[in-house]
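Q: Could you predict the 3D structure of Galactonate dehydratase?
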Amino acid sequence: MKITHLETFVLGTPWRDLTYVRLHTDDGLVGIGETRMLGHTEALLGYLREASTNHIVGSDPFDIESLVWRMKHGDYGRAGEIAMSGIACVEMACWDILGKALGQPVWRLLGGKVRDRIKAYANGWYTVERTAEEFHAAARTVVDRGYRALKFDPFGPGRWELEPAERRRSVELVEAVRDAVGPDVEILVEMHGRFTPAEAVRIAGELEQFAPDWIEEPVPPENFEALSKVSRQVGIPVATGERVHDRIEYRELFARQAADVIQPDIGHFGGILETRKVAATAETHYVLLAPHNVGGAVLTAANLHLAAVTGNFKIQEHFNDFADEHVKQAAPGLPEVIDGYFALPQAPGLGVDLDVDFVRAHPSQGAHFDLYAHDWQFRGTKEDA
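A: Sure. Here are the predicted structure tokens for Galactonate dehydratase:
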């Protein structure tokens, strides 16, 4: 079997573009992959055009390791977010083809399940004013929908450190969410790499009373020594990794014991196998895996197949029950979250289909997302945001 050509499609929302790949083969099988870009979609499409000619067309989709190696190393330069995202789309699509060719869901081809359902947490639900009352009400909608975990960033456009009044306001929002969901629902506090180590430690100390299950990216992602400084001083688990794009980069993080949970994004990390490899290394350091996921149904499906086979998997991020819910229509077939869990996909391949007509009807809007802008949490849903 050979790959004959590659197609790309982009579905737009006000704040994110979802890029889909379809790989066609000479025996008629078609595989799909997806990633989400913030501001780099055109660069990704350009890379995929070049990679299609240089590496992809003519390859056997069963030879995933070989194709990924050539895409990652065959152009000599160091692969970053753009290349690793392109590799991820293609790698996912190859797995989809394999599953369809063999009549099996991808998780069976990866060694078989270690769990029967996948715990999920909600994100994208707090598109409201930053008041305790509105965060409280919004959090109730999450648990009313059956979720037993939710994540949010209460810090507005904060950067480096917060003014005392703004720090109190942010802590009050966490208190309001905890009050809304009760003691048995996990709350995950996103910091988006905003703070200095000292400020992150100070904030974490004030949040401990609300028992968050983790603080995420407390400091900018480039400096694992700074991250380990935070980890040594806080009593809350630390999560990070969505902006790490190569498993080799995790070596220092593990060596420093800088995080308790890693969050590679399959769509930016070279795909399912690359993420599984770093998960295996994490397991040797007693570190859990909670993949970052701001994608649509195809990328979410890839995450579910990985979660099904990964012993140290913790929980799966999911946006699309609250943010841009219509994007689920682009790839029907994904299980819904019921009582806080995804069921395992059962159809061959990834288990979802791409509705090209739907995607074409929702083209890119030139999405731009600035985490340091006022009212960024509205994600384009507020006219004056």
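Q: Anything worth pointing out?
A: The chain has two domains: 3-104, 108-354.
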